[in-house]
Amino acid sequence: MHSITLLDEIRPHWVERVSHRLARGEDVRALFRKQLNEFMGFLRQAILTGDPAWMNSVIDQWIQSRTQSEIQRQDATLSPLLNHMLLATMELAREKLSGDDGLTLMSTLLPIYTHMINYTNQKESERHIEYISRELNRVRETLERLDRSKSDFIAVAAHELKTPLTLIEGYASMVREQLPPQLCDSHTMISLKGMDNGIRRLQEIINDMIDVSLIDNDMLQLNFQPVWLGQLLTMVGNELQTVVEERNLNLVVKEFKGSDEMTFADPERLYQVFRNLLTNAIKYTPDGGRITVDGRELPGFIEVTIADTGIGVDEADHDLIFEKFGRLGEVSLHSSGKTKFKGGGPGLGLPIAKGLVEAHGGTIWVESEGYDEQRCPGSTFHVLIPVLKETPDKKVSRLFSSLVTRDASTARASTPGS
Ligand code: ADP
After folding, report:
1. pTM score > 0.85 for this model?
2. Whose CA is nearest to atom 20 of ligand 1?
């Protein structure tokens, strides 16, 4: 007998059995019966044409009707339903048909059910991936919004703090100037010096906040001028020499190939980068340690390295420390000394350094075996600065044109064989 006739023979029993087993309540059962009858209609078409793809639209419809929370629970798939339907078919083929007819029907239906199960798995995975990427996008948007609010907060806070700080600074200098000489005892002078220090630290923090918001909002403007990195590094080293001695550290600023090469960059901003990196090296290296500033010339770039024998940075934090407020460790251990061992700041130094280096078209990264306060494996910060022989600012370029020509001929003269 033809499979269609056999299917029609068991159909009413099958609809009854499946709906009874899988649906609760008469209303739900009636609706489900309707769906099962539609399913049977497509199954007939699939048998008639020999094309199991006829079942795709029913599966699609069932998958589409699943709720968001069902998709979330990955276990709620259609496969158990299809298994139940196949099982009921096998039971009825045994109960209602002869052995041969049952075998004929099952051998026609099995490839169709296999197709349905494969198709279901594929479609459900696609739907789940869609759901996950939608969720990821949502999380990304939330994070971006949070980052924007963080950035807005920094900008507003910096602006709001700047005005009262200028007032305090003004009044402090008035007090100093108006103080009668007989009152200028050491006690008063110590208090005034303490105030000055506090004002300076606050100014540094506010300036850092302003820099972060300039970088975040792509508003940083570089003032390109001729720069010799070697000179810049020596200047930073000299500035920090007193602190280095106080902390009994050994700071060496080496000369390297390329350190005396002229490049266009923003000297103030690069000074800020290297000052930040050296201050960190001082801060995170125990007394008696060594800090070495070195570098090398690479095609189109100059690489500067600042290596210390300090506590090091955990591999998992190599990227994190360049994020805003990426300072590691406990806030309660925060020390206010800027160059004291492990004396933390607000965690803006490295993100600013990264923003400034990237604004120059360069890169910055850290290398360290890991964090260990006992063993002190040290860290090496690498800064790659592009060598620019022309400034992007055309007016400035004309101003320094003679310098560029002179630098080029000096370079030619010093090339072996020229
Ligand atoms: P902070 O103001 O906390 O120093 P930074 O942005 O300059 O902020 O640095 C972020 C974090 O990176 C620091 O809190 C510290 O944990 C780590 N770090 C920076 N430089 C070094 C270094 N030379 N050695 C070890 N850890 C460092």
Report:
1. no
2. 280
